[in-house]
Amino acid sequence: MLVSGRCFPCIYTVLLKPHVFIYTQKCLTSQLLEIGRLDTPKNTNYEPGQMFVHKLFGYRGIVLFGWLTRIYDQGATDVCRVSSAADKPTQMFNHSYNYLALMDTRDSPFASVENEPTFFRSLRSMYGFKYFIPDLDLVFHEDMLPYTTTETESFKHNLFEKFFVYDPSKQSSFKTTRALDEWQKKYNPRLGLSNAYKATTENIQVTTIPLYTGYRNTRRKNVHWWRVSVRIENLGESTVTLSSRHWQVFSMSSLSRTLRGRGVGGQVKILSQLSPAFQYSSHVSLIAPRGCMWGTFTLKREDESSFECRIPLLLLQSKESDKNIVAAP
């Protein structure tokens, strides 16, 4: 009996409890593969090495590490003030676990997720992955369907063996390597700065999550970098088209710049009942340890009329005094 299923262009997740299947369609060929058995979802955090299927985007993933974050739901237009360390959003918030997770490279071409390789300027090459990580996603706790793999080739990512080794004694079947343990230990102070921000306009919900990735000294100035993940989700029944974006970026020194462009990454995106959500990441830099950004997406309705969808204000924060994170050479 089919218990649950969500469909996406070219990739489907099918649940026949307690089994999990992935259905992929490439050109004129298709496959239905059993990938594992469902685990009982947890209310507490998932451990590193936990495999999951993303409920919204359908791809296979594995948890690197997680942290408890605040999720701000912003209901009104905000004015950015970064002159004081006390300037923070005052909207209502709740808590949830966020996770850094690898995406299975067999699924990433078919998921509605476009993540730039994340460049961690605070990591040394002795860890074996040379600062940047491709197919890295930020995942909410409620987005995860945990499972235990039954595949011979359980996960495909070029850094999988750098971070995990098989351990049949663990429920997740994998334990972390020293490289991942050391990275988590050094990077953990940054994760408390990665809050999530939400805003909804006419049934279009935008969620943003900034992730501080380090700094680099250039011409005697520290250039700070953040990865910003953005999810756009159509909660209604009508199809809309995302036609353009408009960002405002401010630093604590009151310097500002405007970023405009067509669609997302130069591409127009359609959000329908069949494919209601899209997620992407990009990077932003400041010659300051703190700042903020916000903006709007322009969307078109089916009758060709358009409206502005608010991108919530998000804070760009770092902890410059933390000596566990070193600048990249």
What does this 3D model show about the protein?
Strands 1, 2, 3, 4, 5, 6, 7, 8, 11, 12, 15, 16, 17 and 21 form a 14-stranded mixed sheet that branches. Strands 18, 19, 20, 22 and 23 form a 5-stranded antiparallel sheet that branches. Strands 9-10 form a two-stranded antiparallel sheet. The chain is mainly beta and 329 residues long. The chain has helices at residues 160-163, 178-191, and strands spanning 4-8, 11-16, 19-26, 29-38, 51-54, 60-73, 93-103, 113-114, 118-119, 132-133, 136-140, 144-149, 164-166, 174-176, 196-201, 204-218, 221-234, 240-251, 256-262, 269-271, 277-286, 291-300, 306-316. The protein has a single domain (4-316), classed as Sandwich (Immunoglobulin-like). Residues 1-9, 76-90 and 321-329 have low confidence and may be disordered. It contains 2 helices and 23 strands.
Topology, element by element:
Elements (H helix, E strand, L loop, with lengths): L3 E5 L2 E6 L2 E8 L2 E10 L12 E4 L5 E14 L19 E11 L9 E2 L3 E2 L12 E2 L2 E5 L3 E6 L10 H4 E3 L7 E3 L1 H14 L4 E6 L2 E15 L2 E14 L5 E12 L4 E7 L6 E3 L5 E10 L4 E10 L5 E11 L13
Parallel strand pairs: 6-15, 8-21
Antiparallel strand pairs: 1-2, 2-3, 3-4, 4-12, 5-6, 5-12, 6-7, 7-11, 9-10, 13-14, 15-16, 16-17, 17-21, 18-19, 18-20, 18-22, 22-23
